TetR/AcrR family transcriptional regulator
Amino acid sequence: MPAYHHGNLRPTLLAAAERSLRQHGAEQLSLRELARAVGVSHAAPRRHFPDRQALLDALAEAGFARLDAELRAALAAAGDDFGPRLHAMAAAYLRFATEDAALLELMFTSKHRPGADDLVAAAAAPVGLMHDLIVQGQAQGVLEAGDPQRVGIVLFATLQGIAMLVNGNLVAPELLDGIAQTAVDQFIRGSRRQ
């Protein structure tokens, strides 16, 4: 465990909380245990997180920021054409969703809690990337015109379903890349203008 230094307690606590989340789930996460894990007094985390919910919200917000950064990097590396961009985004999302399943679940459940306006705003960035990509596909004539949100929901449901199958040990993780490729190809064929 890296030593805590004055001024970096918040990121140290968030990193420890994310490790705990991966190992034990959100239910087991406590400020007192995190304080013990990083070697500070049990009251020290409250300077940054007044309660457990504030810690969970901070974790979820950081998760959305990381997902957004990973999706943006995948899109930037894929070039300008819609097909490769969609494949890259799907692969990046599925990698995140399967490597950080507990965090992803926390992210989506937390943003639907009343008063979670900061999380809704944080989620808007990665969701906006998918929306913009659907609009690009429609503008290029690859996808049929219509409500991009409806088309995006179908794509998101497909990706989320694949992630759930992998995370539930119903599909071997080594099959993920091939399944993602097939799913995106079928999505494009099924959404193509006639």
Q: What stands out?
A: The chain is about 70% helix and 0% strand. The mean pLDDT is 89. Residues 22 and 102 are 6 Å apart (CA to CA). Helices lie at 9-24, 31-38, 52-78, 82-99, 101-110, 117-139, 148-167, 176-191.
